[in-house]
Specification:
The chain is mainly α and about 220 residues long. The chain has one domain. It is about 80% helix and about 0% strand. The chain contains eight helices and no strands. The chain is globular, with a radius of gyration of 23 Å.
């Protein structure tokens, strides 16, 4: 009895996960309705958002590694994988923090969770377009390579447009207010990065001071 109930619950949870994952395809084609239902009707999930962010990070690495050398300026042997992952993941997370801080002050209705989910689902076009283009880049000539750049622009532009719509729908903002919020969120990201750098610089100086003090004491004593 308990085993059957457990299986039923697991099946329902898995089906809900699949529905949330498939909903990403609806969001990118019907963004206004999609993002509204994503947060207000709970059609999205954190698990799917985590997977989409992970796929974005892997897509970035895949592109650097397997794009045809004629269209790729990156030298894979010089790439630090963890640096590249952090270099993309950190801005995404800092954006969520900056957007939440700003919208909290200006009557935004979205929670940090909603902002993160909306941002993650907005990355779907980048994943869907960039991976096939990376493969295709190995079968086209340099004259046809212009199409690679076009698709890259489409992928990034589509994702940025979706992030803007997610700001509108998650926080129930007008289009103009969403644009201002997005711009100020970018500015907020810069401020957060500056404060983090300043903080770590102060910590580094503090550690350096105590190390120097310790060495001086040891020198005086011995």
């Amino acid at each position: 009895m308990n085993m059957n109930l457990s299986r039923k619950i697991n099946k329902q949870s898995f089906q809900k996960f699949l529905d949330s994952f498939k909903y990403a395809f609806y969001v990118i084609t019907h963004p206004f309705d999609g993002f509204w239902d994503l947060t207000h009707e709970k059609r999205g999930s954190l698990a799917v958002a985590h997977i989409l962010v992970f796929l974005t990070l892997m897509t970035n690495l895949w592109t650097m590694r397997y794009t045809n050398f004629m269209f790729n300026t990156v030298r894979w042997e010089r790439v630090n994988i963890w640096t590249e992952i952090l270099g993309l993941l950190a801005p995404l997370l800092i954006y969520c923090v900056a957007n939440w801080c700003l919208t909290t002050l200006f009557d935004g209705k979205g929670r940090m969770k909603d902002i993160y989910i909306g941002m993650a689902y907005s990355l779907t076009p980048y994943i869907l377009i960039t991976n096939p283009v990376t493969i295709i880049s190995n079968f086209v000539t340099i004259e046809e390579g212009a199409f690679i750049s076009y698709f890259d622009v489409i992928a990034l532009g589509w994702s940025l447009a979706l992030i803007l719509v997610s700001v509108m729908q998650v926080h129930d903002y007008s289009f103009f207010k969403a644009i201002l919020t997005f711009i100020f969120s970018i500015a907020g990201m810069m401020i957060i990065v500056f404060l983090l750098l300043l903080f770590f610089d102060l910590i580094s100086d503090g550690i350096g001071f105590f190390i120097s003090l310790y060495k001086e004491i040891m020198y005086r004593l011995y």
